[in-house]
Protein 1
Amino acid sequence: MIPDWMNNVDLQPGHFSAGRHGKKGFIGKTIEGILGFLEEAFLSESYSKRPGLMQSLDPRVKLLSILAVVFAASMISDLKVLVAIYLLTLLITYLSKIGVGFFIKRVWLFIPIFAGIIAIPMIFNVFLPGDPLYTIIHLGAGAHLGPFSLPESIFITKQGTMAAVIFTMRVATCVSAVVLLFLTTPQQILFKSLRTVGVPKIYVLTLQMTYRYIFLLMEQVREMYIAKKARTIKSRGLIDDQKWVGGRIGYTLIRSLSMSEKVHMAMLSRGFSGEVHIMQEFKMSQRDYLAGAAAISISLVLVLISQDIIRV
Amino acid sequence: MATIFDLRNVSYSYVGKIDALKDITLKIDQGEQVSIIGSNGSGKSTLLAILDALVYPSSGEFYAFGNLISEDAFDSISDSEFRSYFRTKVGFVFQNSDIQLFSPTVYEEIAFGPLQLDLPVDEVKSRVEDVLEMMEIGKLRDRSPHTLSGGEKKKVSIATVLVNNPDVLLLDEPSAGLDPRTQLWLIELLQELGRAGKTVVTATHDLEIIDHISNRSIVMGEDHRIKMDRDSKSILSDYELLLSSNLVHEHTHLHGKLVHEHIHAHGQEHESHGHAHIGGQHNHDSVEK
């Protein structure tokens, strides 16, 4: 059955150094990064099962409360109040049996990316006029940058710094509240609770299915990569690797399309007819009403503060 | 006995080009246990998809429960009485469990079917509990499908279909990838369902289970036509038929109910032990399939 050349067996012993041979390829790093992120997302589900304060509340109450707090916090422009709300989220984090250190790190990891880029220009007098806090460079009168005229000196302004700090703090507070919600609620229950704020059933189902199949497709991507690695005898150039990635992206898309078609068939087969029915198993207890009322009252007070109706 | 499925000269081709089924005429009666056997690509899965009204014949007619199945009645958005009836009566276990398991947890997966059929929530819950217990998968209830093993996925897939209590069960390669113990469990389950009066149609190329789960076998040829439609026992003993349908290799031996293969070294050994022995003692190495 086998051709002649396959009858050759060459088992010469070889000695190769096991030292470093340079950096890891970009594909491996990217795939590991994405998988790592997904695994962490999956791992953080374990926080939602701890017996803490937030975990014990009805997801609908949590969702509505967090939304109310986020709305109120985004209206507040007093730093002291913002810091107070931020500290409150930390307290709730602690009561929800989540490591406060871990929580702070998780939130502040994203803040520089989202808020920093927007806030940094604010502190310079080039963009927002104000009183000098720290002079960076003195340019003299009539300085130009191309067609733009520059002020005499460039400095960091007091007002700008304050505005940037408030802005960042506001983002941090809102992100903390949302991260708290995500950490203490299993993803799937969170999706379901979206129904309470009027998200249609079909979107909730789609969201759930997306979450489910991301893992599956990711696993397929990893398998493709491992299969490639297993057959890679000579490492290839960056361009070749990029071509491979492009091809695989297309292939994954085609596979996911054909899979979605089959999933649809599987749903049809079990009686799905366009109008989806899902089970909603939420029970409100007294503490849920209490927590919801507390969150909404705090938010209301915050809004009144922001409108200067209550003074602090 | 009432006829459940009635296919008359049904052909099917994908994108109008790739033939999957050619001129299939067959009837399946209530309470029958039928195996559809054939090599890879012979059209078994397509035949099942047609039987479950998921795809429609390119030509020919398909009747289920005495009603003509048409794309108009099944693919319309508005509710169709016959469609609801059909979906309640017929259950389909897909070959790839990952396709069938799209819900966040095992519990919700099993509850999906009865919820679509508009059963009251209390009944849905009690049915799900019963099925979890019957399939011995209670401990998996809150697990996410992607964390299950292959065997567990298959069990959950079957549970999601049985919970609708269909009278007709279609299974696509149900034993593929299962360990021997789970395979045996599956055979016993299908036998029990058969005794309960369910109609069970299984597409498979696992010759070992055919005799246990069906009394009638339909052999699909590589030309996508029905090659033979007879009782399972006589089909399994027709070595020439199985060989010509590419279901067995010339080194496969059938010993009564047991199918097995011998690993041969090429050359003289090959000649010496021949392939004619059916039954009897063997003293050479064998690999049980």
Protein 2
Amino acid sequence: MAAPTINEGAAVHHKPFFLWRHLNKLRWLTLIIVFAMLVLLPFLHIYQTYTAAHAYDLLSPGEKQLYDVMESIAAPFVSDPAEDLDAVKGNTWSGSFWGFKISDPLAALGQVAASLSLYWPFLLTALVPVLATIIFGRFFCGWICPATFIYELNSNFASWLRWAGIRVGNRRFDKRIKYGVLALGLILSAVSGSVLAGVVYPPAIIGREIYYTIAQGGLGAGTIFFLGTLLFDILVARRGFCRYLCPGGALYALLGRYRLVRIRRIAETCNDCAKCNVVCEFDLDPLRDGFGQECNNCTACIAICPTDALTFTIRPSDYPEQGPGHLGQLYRKQQATEDTDAAS
Amino acid sequence: MKRRTFLKRLIAGAAMLGTAALLYGVTPLLAPRRATAKRNYLRPPGALADDAAFTAACIGCGLCGEVCPPRCIKFHTRDGSATVNTPYIDAAEKACILCDKCMEVCPTNALTVMPRGDINMGLAEIDQTACYPWVDRGICGACVSICPLGKKAIGYKMWNQYRPEVRAGCVGCGLCVEVCPHPSVPIWVVSRPNDIKV
């Protein structure tokens, strides 16, 4: 008889803000926008070069088609395409927005390692991502990374394969391997005098490979590597590269260790269904309050939770383990035994 | 037992890294090759003079190529070990127009903004045994006409002859190389000798 009263009280005090469970859709939207921009920008650049050369009459039919499509996309936003379209350039590895430059923290760290010197104008371009990571944790991995877009689709593809009866890899390794990859990448960068950390970092690879494919007339070496990671994810471990090997993910996880905005479980409304653990791409343990520095605030667990038992909180560390959810069987049994113990 | 699992993991990790390295290594073999004539690759304008320092400073983001109006900046997409993803200009194919956009957009110190006269991509050199006016096979002057820097960079040897000569003001943009009509292109850009100052 005690359980319903607890639930009513919990429902009043611990109802998460209703929009949190829709953030996962917003996340997919941002991923799609980032990826679409990476595809669009090289085409816009080609269009820019055509306009700068006043060469419409000299273009081949295919090039004219590209010109027309890009003109229809850009015309509402710019008056002088050759100059104005320079406003947004680049990729997630390093980009320029109306003259404001933003770089990946791994790019900054890799360049410091490779050149063994500090060039502050460049290092400061990584300041905004670093601050955002200190507040929101490893959010880049879930919300922006163009490789995540493909990796999550790849995960879904793997689950279709599993549904079709084909065995896909679901091995588990030590998540700390990626910190070793980060250290090794930086050491190799320093030894070779070249930013090699960026050569094994999927978002950087995706950004430049899309650009190479569209504007440079061919894929680069990174594509083969990226296809290798996709195969690794299907055959060996789900989301294996991000979980266990990604050097940038390692850096973001370290920076976001004491993040302020994190997801927490509300034990009062949790029913131990473990859907959050199944849906978590990073193999975390929301069911037992195990988020840790690896969580990228992707909100997939919030979106799937059937009892609204996951929400955001602002604190620099995870909640200590709260025990079984109060709507679950285990908790009720515990309560029953405690009640009988108290009675006897 | 613990040591064994540690060794197992070590070997597994090494195998994974080895596979990754192998994937990178085999790519150049799979990639289609262009005719491998010895090409004179230039770095974009404003590049660090020391090429090792340039390779270390460049993060391979591709921004310089993405703003280049003539699309002359290309990248070592499949070739080059340490220089992979760094930009270059193949002047014979498409030359730099010295518009400064790549220097302005570069987030690192690989390309730094500098006045046009300080740019040092190299120095043009003319083969006087092949150039048409030099071997009295007619008048040309294409290289002199195209030069964005004018008389201080390239001019005629004598006022009534169309024999071009490169002067100390040349910054090595390579437009003369691109425009040269001679099939063997008897003009090219070499690295600037130390005794010739702008």
Protein 3
Amino acid sequence: MTQTSISRRRSAPANGATRPSPHPRRHLPPSAFLIHGVLMVFVVIALGPIFMIVMNSLKTQQGIFGGPFDLPNAETFSFDGYFRVFQLGDFGNLYFNSATVTIVTTVLTVGLATIAAFAIVEYKIRLAPVLSAFFIIGIMLPVRLGTVSLLQMMSSWNLVNTTLALILVYTGMSLPLGVALMVTYFRSIPQELKDAARIDGAGEFQTLGVVTPMVRPGLGAVAALTMLPIWNDLWFPLILAPGRSTQTVTLGVQQFMGQYDSDWPALLAALTLGAIPLILLFLVFSKQFIKGLSEGYGK
Amino acid sequence: MKSRIAPLALALATAMIALAGCSGAGSGDQVTLQFESWRPEDAAIWNSKIIPAFEKEHPDIKVQFSPTKATEYDAALKTRFQGGTAGDLITCRSGALNRENIKAGYLEPLKGLAGLSNFDELSQSFWASSEGDPYCVPVASVMAAFFYNKDIFKELNLQVPTTQAEFMSVLQAIKSNGKYVPLALGATPGDAWVLAFMGLYNEGPNYWHGEDGRQGLIDGTKKFTDPEFVEALDSLKSWTPYMPDGRASVTYSDATQLFALGKAAIFPSGSWDITAVTGTSGIDVGVFAPPLPQAGDQLYIQSHPDMGIGINAASKHKKQAQVFLDWVATSEFQTLYANALPGFFGMGKDAVKLDNPLAQAWSDLKTGAQLTPRLGQDILSGGNPDFEVTMENSLQLMMTTDKTAAEVADETQKGLEAWYPPQMK
Amino acid sequence: METRKNNSFHNTAAKYRYLLLFTLPALLFYVVFAVYPLFATFFISVFQTEGGERSFIGLDNYVYLFTDPTQSGQFWHALLNNLEFFAIHLIVQIPVALLMAALITSDAVRRLTGFYRTILFIPATLSVVIVGFIWRMIISPLWGIVGFPLLGTEATALPTLSFMSIWEWIGIPMIFLYTALIAIPKDILEAARVDGASGMRTFWGIKFPLITPQFGLITILTFIWTMNGFDIIYSLMGGAPGPNYSTDILGTFFFRSFFGYNNIIGDADFGAAVATVIFLFILICTAGYFVVLQRRLRPHEL
């Protein structure tokens, strides 16, 4: 699209000389300096505390409490916390469980929410706003409240202590927000684009295929919003899948914390190990989904 | 992109259903008992010492220790009972919470279990139904008293205090010296229970004469506003100048660390902390009993029935669970348990030999003392507003603001009068 | 318009068919695993359970909630605290998130947009367990950088917890507003540039009006999330959150009623009544918001 040429032009100022500069260069340096300064402050606030956990997990108990803000030195550096955690915990299995639950649920939610939202926006009949409202109400439901019924249901289906139980429940709970969000993104697509696809003879499924790339920002947002609470949820794993083989990372870490109440290096190591994968997963997602959204709009 | 992922997800989901189906199939003769507990910190000991000892004697029964963190235990257990997924063996809290589970029919009555004859009636009563029938085998009681750092005492030339006056002068001496925090005790709201269990219920029984005061509250002949209770509260408030700076945000864990790292001289706490205070930096720790109001007074010590084990009424393996409970009632188990977890004392009739000298020192405190459980648990709990929750809230304010002992007593008493028949006006 | 008439999708029956076909999978998950269990629980709020026997008592649980001095006192107190919890998010989190989104989409940061966006979102990936842990350590009077007991003092405890929650979740409104900002067609902005509008003027004059619907949406979502809030407070302050209940919010009040806490014995029937009231409160406020405000925040036709 035309916007790609703009960005190319901006990165190569020599070409810009043929047209009036869209943004006078001389205004940039002071304001850019300020903007980066403010953002760097935010970055420090966001990362500082996380850095503290990681740093202290590499120290001895005395090192942690002697100076929690000091970098580990020859005397206080220790990897023991990690050894103790690895000795007791099967982290590979915990990661596998969490990843399975998180990824399958996210894919299901994003997929089903997209199809449903497309239909709600597209087929303007009386039922559509009713369905839309029905989903929106779901955002407000206090999810813990249904725990007992859910447990009875899963128990009667023999699904207690399976990751599938978690996937089903999480998908049901993530869908309302997913649908509500996707509806807003589909609404912002110009009608002409969809109509153009239809005139070209596309069926409903193909039309969906044509417009889906245009709602990529929405896909990214829904994926992120679905993923976070699931990875970090403590309650449903505790109730629906507390068994050792189906435990998630968050639940496992919580158990370690109980076990190492006074062994802070091990405790911080467990916290670090519990947090890192989602950060990495997010970095990957960030590239694939959220970065893709700028392409969707031809930035 | 989506269209490529959707079939993948479907395949994954199908695979998982298949997996779930497989894991459900159990083996023929061997039975596995799920064992619910609120102490994940004990997992290593159960898994490596206690359960193997049982399984060696009973190769046809496997026991799987599955703990839930103490703060989530009661809610999670209740939900599992209702959903029909609770384990076969249930670790029982004593008193009101357990009676509630009994009333709801979640626990199997243990009347006639042979092993129970190893416990006296009083020990059994803490886990009995309102009618007095036993529902759990008593496993452990814990005590409250004061840990102290022997090296600091030596360095500052201090004697172990026996009276309140001596206790105050010891604290003052440590404070004047300035090198150490006199009293490792926090008053953060999230850990307000500490102020009750390790504070008031620790030093207070000496003022309200243990069972005398407790039973008086229970049968309505005494009020929490009576002088003996207010004096106990006042004595607790006198600790505040010796607590760490910023005490209103100091947690239980902070206080434990402060003491374990040798930065604090005295740690009012419970026997369950023996491993926590000696484990990290190997300081030399001793213990002393709660100070007496006057020299020569009778000593009262908090000894609280902490843990029992019962059977889920819905268990499919009750017979095997009973075998396990009978084993738990033996002195073999009690010796194993009390030594693996120093500070958790067996409740059986037979004395158990303790290898840990500090645990033995704690146990020795009982000589000549009268024992009493925690004041606010059992009968006084379970109403609305709850006695202990109301009191802890007020205690936290008393220890961090200028709220007085009399006000705490007043608020707590009012709460009790709102629902507890013997105290109603 | 005329050309589309013969297209099959204009037939109402076909529309119904497709609408149902496309929404059915989502509806199935949603109804079976969220709506049904929740309403099954709402249903028990008109019962009471005595020794395993369940009996119908009509609205007695609701009457009890609003007339019992202890319960109603704690309920209103929790509601007010919760509104404060929300207000702090509204005043701090949303403006700061907007600032972040505006800054990272400004022309000055083009190349580092991805970097900032990712980094600022990272705290949202952490579990409450770790967030509570880090911040409690940082503000600990014993080991940390603040001598004052922020969490142990009535006046500061709830704001402190709110700031922890804001720190953790700020990435969400930021990403929200960010995606809205980058979705603005570039030709509109280009026109403004040509007119020589300054960055500030472009933002408030053109960009912000275009994203007001998303701004409104994230505000109401923040309301819903904070009103259903629970985790950070429960993990740091427990189920009867002090000091003196100053950090008790609706979520902790509900949890205490439903599941019990410490020696407080949970009552599922009464707890369900509490949850129903909370749900209705959120529903009415949200509906009111949509009726009164969101309809006016229509995006300018793009």
